[in-house]
Amino acid sequence: MSKKNHKRPARIETKSTDIDAEPSADEPEFISKSSRKREMTALQKTGEAMLALPAKQFAKVPISPILREALELAASLKSREGKRRQMQYVGKLMRSEDREKITEVLASFDENSRTFRLQFQRLEKLRDELIDGSNEALTNILEQHPELERQHLRQLIRQASKEREQNKGPAASRKLFKYLRLAILDQ
What we know:
Blueprint: H1 33-51, H2 55-60, H3 65-76, H4 80-94, H5 99-131, H6 135-144, H7 150-165, H8 171-184
């Protein structure tokens, strides 16, 4: 077998359209089809994240009325294919929106929910310490929150610990948690 010797053609240089030349400011920069597709997919994912928001949070997102209407329509669609096409349209509309502001608002919602979960977990731990009979936890909570009614709090703790000893349902424990939540978190 013999190899054929292929010669490369000589490079032809032109004056105005040199391949190695820097693009001028008025020429648009080339964007590959795959990068445009990734960008559209990311915009659709942002739209899906907005669809998953509760109504109060969705109302706070800074978007145009057309995009809001398109997202509401996407939420009401049952057909998988119809929803897919509507989300593509949402991605197209998202190109003209201020993506940075939208992303910032969505991140703040996520941070708020994370903070809420941490506070919720701290309250659960405090409630469990109180039910277990920790006088130190009771003293600390009453010092930090003097607006709590000492007698009512002690009564709720006694009821919850009695429930736990008798292996009953956690009704009093829930009442104690609700009292703590209303007094501490909803100030």
